[in-house]
Amino acid sequence: MFELHACTFSANQYTVSNLAFATRATPENAAVAAKAKWAKEQRESGKYTVPSKIGDEKEHNLFLRCDCAEVRAACNLPDGASVVDTLGSLRALKDRGK
């Protein structure tokens, strides 16, 4: 797997919209709320939100947290749901704009 300090360089600026989705899905998650606030401030100041580090992404990126109970619950899946099922449900939620 990737080192937690490794950087990611996405080719888009969807950080704010992705974090808005994560905030709706996991409203009690402080890491998501803090990152969403930071990203919004960055973009409002004309700054980029990339690169990011894998370790940071694992705290707020729902698609990297499909093994977490919090994410399964956001997808209305039982605790025993697989990572693959959770990822599919999460993607469907995002596609529907939930």
Give an overview in words.
The protein is mainly alpha-helical and 98 residues long. The protein has one domain. The protein is 53% helix and 4% strand. α1 (15-25) runs antiparallel to α2.
Spans of at least 5 consecutive residues with low confidence: none
C-alpha-based Rg, rounded? 14 Å
Helical coverage, percent range: 40-55%
Structural class: mainly alpha
Overall geometric form: globular
Portion of residues in beta strands equals under 5%
Mean pLDDT: 92
Number of individual domains: 1
- Give the topology string: H per helix, E per strand: EHHEHHH
Q: Distance between the terminal alpha carbons, to the nearest Å? A: 30 Å
DSSP helical segment count: 5
Count all strands and give the number.
Answer: 2
Spatial strand arrangement across the major sheet: 1-2
User: Biggest sheet: strands, sense, closure?
Assistant: 2 strands, antiparallel
Summarize the structure.
By secondary structure, the chain is mostly helical.
Descriptors:
98 residues; mainly alpha; two-stranded antiparallel sheet; 5 helices; 4% strand; globular
Task: Compile the SSE list and pairings.
Layout lengths: L6 E2 L6 H11 L4 H15 L7 E2 H7 L8 H6 L8 H13 L3
Antiparallel strand pairs: 1-2
